[in-house]
Amino acid sequence: MNNQNIYNLKLFVFNTNMVDDFSFETDDERALLKELVLLECLTTKRIEIMKTIAKYHPESIRDLSRILERNIKNVFEDLVLLQKNKFISFEDKGKSKKPIMVMKKVVFYYKNGEKEDKKTFKVN
Questions:
Q1: Mutual orientation of helices 44-56 and 72-84 as an angle, nearest 10°?
Q2: What is the CATH number of the domain that holds 48?
Q3: Are both 2 and 30 inside the same structural domain?
Q4: Computed from CA positions of residues 4, 7, 12, 17, in that sequence, does the dihedral angle turn out positive or negative?
Q5: pLDDT, tens digit, 9 for 90 and up, residues 40-52
């Protein structure tokens, strides 16, 4: 599979669970696509959401949207995507849901020319 095919597929994949719906020639191709989907999930606003959850421990999605000063619908959509990719979970609090951080640290390994390098992203 060449890179063009991977990027075309990536446009249709919204979380890592959906990657299994596609057929691949090798397990490496499947793993690469999952990594691309995971990276796509980590936008600046979603990283801000995770840092805010870790720092302020909001009691509900509404509370989180107030802290972020963002529309609750948009925050909810980002939270759902983060949950599907196992970055956060929800705890039921009566009628509301409390967002909880699952991952505290993400380490990215990448090639920089011939040298392998890593970048650590800490949420808290």
A1: 90
A2: 1.10.10.10
A3: yes
A4: positive
A5: 777 889 989 998 9
Which tokens in the block code for residue 1? 């599979």
Same domain, 26 and 2: yes
60 is in which domain, residue-wise?
A: 44-101
**Helix (H/G/I), strand (E/B), else coil: 114:** coil
Residues facing residue 69 across a β-bridge = none
Interval 92-122: pLDDT, tens: 999 999 999 988 777 766 666 677 777 676 7
The answer on 54 and 21 residing in a single domain is no
Cβ(49)–Cβ(79) under 8 Å?
A: yes
Q: Please, which residues have CB within 8 angstroms of residue 9's CB and are 6 or more apart in sequence?
A: 22, 33
Rounded Cα gap, residues 45 and 48, in angstroms = 5
Kindly state whether residue 113 falls inside one of the protein's structural domains.
Answer: no
pLDDT, residue 65, reads 98
Rounded to 5 degrees, what angle do the CA atoms 81, 70, 75 make?
15
User: What is the total count of domains within the chain?
Assistant: 2
